[in-house]
UniProtKB/TrEMBL annotation, chain A:
Belongs to the NqrDE/RnfAE family. This is Ion-translocating oxidoreductase complex subunit E. InterPro entries: NqrDE/RnfAE (IPR003667), RnfE (IPR010968). The lineage of its organism: Bacteria, Pseudomonadati, Pseudomonadota, Gammaproteobacteria, Oceanospirillales. It comes from Marinomonas ushuaiensis DSM 15871. Residues 233-252 are annotated as: Disordered.
Automatic annotation (TrEMBL), chain B:
This is Ion-translocating oxidoreductase complex subunit D. One of its GO terms (cellular component) is plasma membrane. One of its GO terms (biological process) is electron transport chain. The chain crosses the membrane at residues 20-39, 45-65, 96-114, 126-146, 234-252, 258-278, 290-308, 314-332. The complex is composed of six subunits: RnfA, RnfB, RnfC, RnfD, RnfE and RnfG. Part of a membrane-bound complex that couples electron transfer with translocation of ions across the membrane. Keywords: Cell inner membrane, Cell membrane, Electron transport, Flavoprotein, FMN, Membrane, Phosphoprotein, Translocase, Transmembrane, Transmembrane helix, Transport. It is a multi-pass membrane protein. The gene is rnfD. Its main location: membrane.
Length: 252, 352
């Protein structure tokens, strides 16, 4: 996974006053880190075997993403271009260490289950990508919102994949939620199918590849349908009313 | 790497349509199905039935979602062939949902999502088999034993087979036993001479039953050769490579390995060599390519059987070689008539 991000994307986002609605739409849907950029695949495929694992990792990534985006945005005018990336990685690593220590303190079992994938948040290209492409060029507030939305987009897909795999793999949903939410969540486990044979293939990482493929296909299907709907709408509206074609001056 | 344009082998003889080829392959499995039914009861036939219904339903559903002509593609018998191959490969008393999972995965994911017949890079039947083998290890390892050895001393009646497949037959353990390959795999530290004397699954009655099954598939395979549906290259290469691997390692280490004959006549050796590896879509097309492809399968079967985690390795070996089939094809392009040398690969500095 490379940390490259689309340059044209970066240019459009380089405007001084970022459009908040566009940031939200980009993070959740159009430029979703998991479905479109396909960044951070390694933790995504490895830990999404249950909802609670996916939610734990999604929240940790979200916090790191917001934190690093804010920090990077704050120092963006004081870091030389040459040492830009090492500085960003240091910031991300510090936030990851904080999250790791917090999880170790409050959700120790989940911390043990997620294991190496919490420290590996440092290498999640979605985070470095956002720091370099967005936060290093924008003020604090849009950067924070971008981090939040990108993190949400990533987390939602993680949880969706986790739910799919838990449901098909083990026939349950929300098992072991007490690892994250404490004792009130102890009865949240929902046994959807009784007497269900575990489908090991879905529980193992290969199942995550197929699950992610299905999610991407579903997103592309929705996009395609929307595009078709717009095209039909446009055809129905007919050509614009002005009959004279303007060939000089500014064409708006 | 450019895609090769070698025309499909099954169209080389004029007048033979896809449906004819598929029908003949289905017919060629009949000796094997008959012998399996005779030895292990009705389970295999019931499996084939369940698999066929599930395959046709899945194929029809996906075709209608893809807005393709349903009747046209159902009539080419390819889905039915996948179902039959899976039905005979699965253990006879495997619960019905295992069969349905395997078949629907084979048809929907391994075949139709790639674009239907002719576009699938992997053998659909083996993808389905591998999925359920990985997912449900317990039901997939329960093969029935032959009558004379298992505790109850008889094979399952038709009704009992149905019960075993649809409900849980309580005394099914009385009828099941390890296959010879399973028995040999789990012989632990015993040397093979003692293993063949003491382990139940390696008694001559058990080994002979599998010999019969393999001979039946050999007969069916020879029939396919005679009809010129398959060429000799792939099966000979598979069995030859398995023979050489087993022979060489047997010579080096007599006490811990099985004889080459044991490897050739147990498990899915013949079935895999004649019915699975010769799939025209997912295997190699040139004759030299088929030899390399088959030899790869044979070597991998021996490696997986001997050092791998599973007792038999035909499915995984075939899938792994399916991966490499396009590469093998690329480097074994035959000489075109009128040209001196076959074009093999790209030359350095030449970019076409």
């Amino acid at each position: 996974m490379s940390a490259e991000t689309d340059t044209s994307d970066a240019i459009t986002e380089n405007k001084p006053s970022a459009n908040y609605a566009e940031i939200i739409y980009n993070g959740i849907w159009k430029n979703n880190p998991a479905l479109v950029q396909l960044l951070g695949l390694c933790p995504m495929l490895a830990v999404t075997s249950t909802v609670v694992n996916a939610l734990g990792l999604g929240l940790a990534t979200l916090v790191v993403l917001v934190g690093s985006n804010i920090a990077v945005s704050l120092i963006r005018n004081y870091v030389a271009d040459a040492v830009r990336l090492p500085a960003f990685v240091m910031i991300i690593a510090s936030f990851t260490t904080c999250i790791e220590l917090i999880m170790q303190a409050y959700t120790y079992e989940l911390y043990q289950i997620l294991g190496i994938f919490i420290p590996l948040i440092v290498t999640n290209c979605a985070i470095l990508g956002r720091a370099d492409a967005f936060a290093s060029r924008n003020p604090v507030l849009p950067s924070a919102l971008d981090g939040l939305m990108m993190g949400l987009g990533f987390g939602v897909i993680l949880v969706a994949l986790g739910a799919m795999r838990e449901l098909i793999g083990q026939g349950t949903l929300f098992a072991d939620m007490q690892l994250l939410f404490g004792d009130i969540a102890i009865n949240w486990k929902w046994v959807v199918f009784d007497d269900y044979p575990n489908v090991l293939f879905v529980v193992l990482p290969p199942g995550a590849f197929i699950g992610l493929g299905l999610l991407i296909a579903f997103k592309n299907y929705l996009d395609e349908r929307e595009k078709k709907r717009l095209a039909i709408q446009k055809a129905k509206d007919g050509p614009s009313e002005s009959k004279r074609v303007r060939v000089t001056g500014q064409v708006s | 790497m450019a895609l090769l344009r070698i025309s499909s082998p099954h169209t080389q003889r004029a007048g033979h349509r896809t449906s004819w080829v598929m029908q003949m392959v289905i017919l060629a499995t009949l000796p094997g199905i008959a012998v399996q039914t005779w030895l292990f009861g009705w389970g295999t036939l019931i499996n084939v039935m369940i698999a066929s219904i599930a395959a046709l339903l899945c194929e029809a559903a996906i075709l209608s979602i893809r807005r393709r002509s349903v009747a046209f593609f159902l009539k080419d018998y390819s889905a039915l062939l996948t179902a039959v191959l899976l039905g005979v490969a699965l253990p006879p008393t495997v619960p019905w949902w295992v069969t349905v999972t395997a078949v629907s995965f084979a048809i929907i994911f391994a075949k139709q999502l790639y674009g239907g017949l002719g576009n699938n890079p992997f053998n659909p039947a083996m993808v389905g088999y591998a999925i359920v083998l990985v997912s449900f290890p317990v039901p997939m390892s329960q093969w029935l034993g032959v009558q004379s050895i298992v505790a109850s001393g008889e094979s399952l009646s038709f009704l009992q087979s149905l019960q075993a497949i649809f409900h849980h037959l309580p005394n099914i353990d009385g009828y099941t036993m390890a296959t010879p390959l399973d028995g040999f795999k789990n012989k632990d530290l015993v040397d093979s001479a003692t293993a063949f004397q003491t382990i139940e699954a390696l008694q001559s009655a058990s080994i002979n039953s599998w010999l019969w099954v393999n001979m039946a598939y050999l007969v069916g395979g020879v029939g396919l050769l005679w009809l010129r549906i398959i060429t000799w290259h792939t099966p000979v290469a598979v069995l030859g490579a398995l023979l050489i691997m087993a022979g060489v390692f047997h010579l080096f280490d007599m006490s811990n390995t099985a004889t080459p004959l044991f490897h050739l006549t147990t498990g899915a050796a013949m079935f895999g060599a004649f019915f699975i590896a010769t799939d025209p879509v997912s295997s190699c097309t040139s004759n030299r390519g088929k030899l390399i492809y088959g030899a790869g399968i044979g070597i991998l079967i021996y490696i997986i059987r001997t050092w791998g985690g599973y007792p038999d390795g035909v499915a995984f070996a075939v899938l792994l070689m399916n991966f490499s089939a396009p590469l093998i094809d690329y480097y074994t392009q035959p000489r075109t008539y009128g040209h001196k040398k076959a074009k093999k690969g790209l030359k350095i500095g030449e970019d076409n």
